[in-house]
Design brief:
Length: 668
């Protein structure tokens, strides 16, 4: 009998020893089925130690060995790194990165789809355009660096030809026999990229990996990547863990996008994990964006980071006629607005209608109105379970919480005083749509937000409609801002963006800037020049100034200067301990106990702030508190967290209290 040490998907920071028959092939990297309590679980063999802490009689035998697929050594290094860095149990990390089909006791059969069996003739690859000078220069820098680890930040406005640079680099890597990993924020919003890559490299067996695939398809694609049949893997954050034997290049498109951050379970940043992986595998990594994250921007430009990333810049749009759109601010203090839309914007829309061009009104708030209120008694529609308002959805006559999903029908009279005069306050996309329909009865108006495009299919149908010119005016949230070329779209109106200027979250301006640049980039991508109109009460705000001049570097410089003064990332490193319980007092008490750990004194570089309620203090009937940990040195922070985390597990707390530790938190 052999002792095997197995990582299991349980919330414990340890592995478990079992006995395996010698005759079997119980080797590191194999999956096994083992008894655990009264259940059977699938685990991964991480070691075959000569001895166990338990005597052989105490060890249970495994139930089965699953030899295929055998997980490779670099996958171990990657998951071990993540477990250590994010303070997560190794077994949870390992199993959560595998497709469900490999984690389950009764996996679906990974059958090849029928169509793939017939030898089909491959379509001819699309041809590359002649590169612009800027593209040529950027490529030369990457090529010169060779094949080892080197991070590049490809900074270029929307339409500057970043994707073409990716395609050229992919071609290089494929030619050398390598595999390429391409990460995108949300697959739904980037079908065009997938189609472009597939059309350029029809023989590369491109597979995609994202959470909308069926379990069987995901397993099939994972296996194609694992055994090298797929030479290009395009996926969302979870794809960063896919074993790729010949990995030669990693590309991260829209690297600033917050959806690269996982917000539950192991709270990891796929971008950061990808950089680690590129380093570990000694391959180049290209991070691309029109509005890089401040972390990446600092890595590429700040003196104190000593040029950790190499900056590649594309300043011009790739297609000669496609000028950057002209951006203007509309001063709402001076302009009268009708249902929130200024005369200037309405006129501009009218002009587009007359010319047969498309307009987009961008409002990043879905629903009809953010709140329903009674003017007589002051009642407002708030969620009983959250510290948040219920949003009015008139399309289906519901009040809905956007945080916990609670919903209710719309009351006819005030629930508190019976007053019949209850009003929606503020506006969302539905209300704008309603107003525009009245105002422009001749126009075809299409709303695009998560309420109308719930699935990928619905979203694709919507995009197709817009492409086919079946809409004159689009009303949409940030869904519309990402990754789409709408050749007839020449006007973008931005409304209701001011709120994000003064949000408590220090990353709110960065996100607003990225969103506005992205949505502005939708205007005038082909022959037709584009115009962007931003309605604001604060026309002199420097953020809008930087949008007008398309000047990300200036914006980033002011943001980084503020962060430096405040000692915020990237000038410090952070972790957040969060606790939630039915009573806030319990959550705070837990955090206070955590903070009172006496050995904190042995970590003088680390600062622990006071426990405070979270900005949204209550979510789904749980009250939430947090404790911020900050440190100038990443290794010192890691050392502290590694010592502190086991202490947290020993804290006595009410049974309904839950806590987690998040490293490099994005949201506050
Ligand atoms: P980005 O990824 O930066 O938004 P794209 O690579 O999608 O930019 O390029 C924008 C548009 O310009 C696309 O329609 C693309 O086909 C075109 N394009 C890119 N590079 C060139 C080039 N060198 N010559 C002509 N057209 C180009
Ligand atoms: Zn009332
Ligand atoms: Zn709620």
């Amino acid at each position: 009998m052999t002792i095997v040490r197995v990582a299991l998907d349980v919330p414990l920071h340890r592995c478990f020893d079992y006995l395996a028959p010698d005759a079997g092939r119980a080797e590191i990297g194999c999956r096994v089925r083992v008894p655990f309590g009264r259940r059977s679980l699938i685990g991964v063999i991480v070691d075959t130690p000569a001895q166990s802490d338990y005597s052989p009689e105490q060890l249970k035998p495994i139930e089965a060995i699953l030899n295929e697929p055998r997980l490779p050594a670099d996958w171990f290094r990657l998951t071990e790194f993540c477990a250590a860095y994010y303070q997560a149990p190794l077994g949870e990390v390992m199993l959560s990165t595998l497709p469900a089909g490999l984690r389950r006791l009764d996996p679906p059969k990974a059958r090849e789809p029928k169509a793939a069996k017939e030898a089909k003739e491959l379509p001819t690859p699309t041809l590359a355009p002649e590169l612009t000078v800027e593209q040529t220069n950027a490529l030369a820098v990457v090529r010169e660096a060779g094949s080892g680890f080197k991070p590049f930040l490809l900074f270029g406005v929307t339409g500057s030809g970043k994707t073409e640079v990716y395609l050229q680099l992919i071609a290089d890597a494929l030619k050398k026999g390598g595999q390429v990993l391409v990460l995108v924020p949300e697959i739904n919003l980037t079908p065009q990229l997938e189609a472009r890559v597939a059309a350029r490299f029809p023989a590369a067996g491109l597979v995609s990996l994202h959470s909308e695939l069926t379990e069987a398809a995901r397993l099939r694609n994972w296996k194609a990547a694992f055994d090298g049949r797929a030479r290009i893997v395009l996926g969302t954050r979870l794809a960063v863990f896919t074993p790729l034997p010949d990995l030669a290049l990693i590309i991260i498109d829209e690297e600033h996008d917050p959806s690269f951050k996982q917000q539950d379970g192991m709270r990891y940043s796929a971008r950061d994990v990808a950089v680690f992986r590129a380093h570990e595998r000694q391959v180049p990594i290209v991070l691309g964006s029109a509005t890089p994250s401040l972390e990446s921007w600092a890595n590429a430009t700040a003196k104190e980071m000593r040029g950790r990333y190499t900056l590649l810049t594309l300043k011009e749009r790739a297609i000669e006629q496609a000028r950057l759109p002209s951006v203007q601010r509309i001063d709402l203090r001076k302009e009268k607005a009708e249902e929130g839309l200024s005369g200037i914007l309405l006129e501009a829309i009218e002009k587009r209608l007359a010319r047969g061009e498309q307009s987009l009104v961008f409002l990043n708030r879905r629903g009809y109105a953010p709140v329903l209120a009674c003017t007589a008694c002051g009642w407002i529609s708030n969620c009983k379970r959250c510290a948040a308002n219920l949003v009015l959805h008139l399309a289906d006559k519901r009040l809905r919480c956007h945080h916990c999903g609670y919903e209710n029908r719309v009351p006819r009279t005030c629930p508190t005083c019976g007053n019949q005069d209850i009003h929606p306050f503020g506006r969302g996309t539905q209300r704008l749509e309603e107003f525009l329909t009245e105002r422009f009865p001749q126009a075809r108006i299409l709303r695009a937000d998560r309420d109308v495009a719930k699935s990928r299919k619905q979203w694709e149908a919507l995009v197709e409609k817009i492409h086919a010119g079946e809409a004159d005016i689009l009303v949409g949230t940030q869904m519309l801002a990402k990754g789409h070329d709408f050749p007839k779209l020449t006007l973008v109106g931005v409304v209701g963006a001011d709120a994000a200027l003064f949000a408590a979250d220090c990353r709110a301006p960065e996100r607003l800037f990225a969103q506005l640049m992205q949505v502005a980039g939708r205007a005038g991508r082909a022959e037709l020049p584009g115009q962007v109109l931003i309605q604001t009460q604060y026309p002199d705000h420097p953020l809008y100034g930087a949008i007008v001049t398309h000047d990300y570097p200036a914006f980033a410089a002011t943001q980084l200067a503020e962060r430096k003064v405040a000692g915020f990332p990237p000038y410090s490193h952070q972790a957040m301990l969060r606790a939630e319980a039915p009573q806030m007092a319990d959550a705070i008490a837990f955090l206070a106990t955590a903070r009172a750990w006496p050995e904190i004194e042995t970590h003088p570089a680390v600062t622990l702030y006071d426990p405070v309620p979270m900005r949204m203090a209550r979510l789904a009937n749980l009250e939430r508190g947090q404790l911020l940990v900050e440190c100038a040195s990443r290794p010192a922070l890691q050392a502290f967290l590694t010592a502190w985390r086991p202490q947290l597990e020993g804290i006595k707390a009410p049974s309904r209290l839950r806590w987690h530790l998040e490293v490099d938190p994005l949201e506050f």
